[in-house]
Amino acid sequence: MDQPRLTREEKGMLHGAQGPAVKRAMEIVVALGKIYGAPHLVLVGSVQVSGVSFKNLGEAGLAFLQEWADQGAQVRVPTTLNPAGIDTVRWSILGFDERFARQQGRVIEAYARMGIQTTCTCTPYLVGNLPSFGEHIAWAESSAVCFANSVLGARTNREGGPSALAAAICGRTAAYGFHLDPGRRARFHVDVRCPLHTLSDWGVLGYIVGRQVRNAVPYFDLGDQRCAPPEPDTLGSDLCADQLKALGAGLAASGAVALYHVRGVTPEARQGDVLADDAQRLVVDDLADGYQALNRGTCRVDLVSVGCPHASPRELEQIARAVSGQHLQAALWVTTARETRERMPHAVFAIEDAGGQVVADTCMIVAPIEELGFRVLATNSAKMATYAPSHSGVQVRFGNLEQCVEAAITGLWPAVAANAERHPR
Ligand code: F3S
Questions:
Q1: Does domain 8-181 have CATH number 2.60.40?
Q2: Averages of pLDDT over each 10 residues, the chain, 425 residues
Q3: What residues contact residue 278 under an 8 Å CB cut-off, 6+ apart?
Q4: How are beta strands 41-43 and 172-174 bridged, if at all?
Q5: Cβ of residue 383 lying under 6 Å from some atom of ligand 1
Q6: Is the distance from the beta carbon of residue 203 to the nearest atom of ligand 1 less than 6 Å?
Q7: Which residue owns the Cα nearest ligand 1 atom 3?
């Protein structure tokens, strides 16, 4: 395997001319380039780093970050963080353990010392980290990668935590995979023949297709029900942006999809032919199997989790309208970016007045919710429903927002009749 071609400056960085922290970062980026046959490196415009929750990092991960920060590592491009293990402000009210919160604080402090913005969210594109079409970036969170590649037309591989951090420190990543045109062609043509009414329908479509295409690029033909292409500057209030966010999260959770195209909607599909000549055809005419596969809980629900990926301002408003004036029986945690929580005081008030919580900086997968006593979680997110049993030790109920709100109000999962009716087997 050949090493990527390096510029004079990059060779110097690799051999320690800019210090040990940059040398270490370059070693990681160049090693990945060698493994994947990258011809050269590309400059990146922004980075999103995963590996933030102390639940996943543990003491060894914290020590690794502190050591890199002690070496003087500094990021060269705007860099944000994935969700952490706690709401960094309201962790105590929410019942998180003090020792865990302390260690989580040290993780964030290590990142802050490297110059990283401590915005902890999986929707950085809703709070200012918004790459442009064709821009090379190095993002790590799988649903954010899918959104950036597909909806924004930026170019990123599915980075791991250390490789994204390395890219931020040296300002470069290896040019392979989704950075290059051939890697962006669709290998599956997915003909969607069933209606998509709710965000959970979009998520479950992603779940069903992700299981089949695994890490390949799908091209969706939604017939005449396609949504309007979202505008980058109004993503937070755009229904289509939320639908595509849910679709990408489902694809990335059940498969390892990093890019999808939608006929007439996503930017590359609107610009030209993105289908490979030998693309395989798939037909989806029913979502019921996906709903059934993701429903593995009892009827009694003790936690309703909405906001995976992190809720947009539009979703916060929708949830606020649905619970306003209610008295919730089950815990309702709506997860979102801190900036979104701060921008939406009226929605936050309505949700919290009903007994729910608008939780920032974290989510139910990376937070240690198993230690908070929750047993059955209800969600409208296919990604959350996929991961919660294995990552958080809870049973799951999966359905649309209306069902989730009803579960929060009554503490019981509503009869599954709604989905059965809409998606007859
Ligand atoms: Fe985000 Fe957590 Fe879901 S990181 S995509 S809210 S599993």
A1: no
A2: 94 98 98 98 98 98 98 98 98 98 98 98 96 98 98 98 98 98 98 97 98 98 88 94 98 98 97 95 98 91 97 98 97 98 98 98 95 95 97 96 97 69 42
A3: 187
A4: antiparallel
A5: yes
A6: no
A7: 308
Alpha-carbon Rg for the chain in angstroms? 21
**Fold of the 295-416 domain:** Aconitase; domain 3 (3.30.499)
Comparing C-alpha atoms, which of 55, 58, 115, 44 is closest to residue 81? 115
- Cα–chain center distance at 395: 21
Q: Kindly state the tokens that stand for 218.
A: 């799908």
Pocket of ligand 1 contains residue 120 by CB under 6 Å: no
pTM of the model: 0.96
In a mutational test of the pocket of ligand 1, which residue from 56, 333, 384, 391 has the highest number of ligand atoms less than 8 Å from its CB? Answer: 384
Q: Give the ligand 1 atom nearest the CA of 310.
A: 6
242 vs 312: CA distance, rounded Å = 7
Cβ(363) – ligand 1 distance below 6 Å: yes
CA dihedral 68, 74, 77, 82 (to 10 degrees): 40
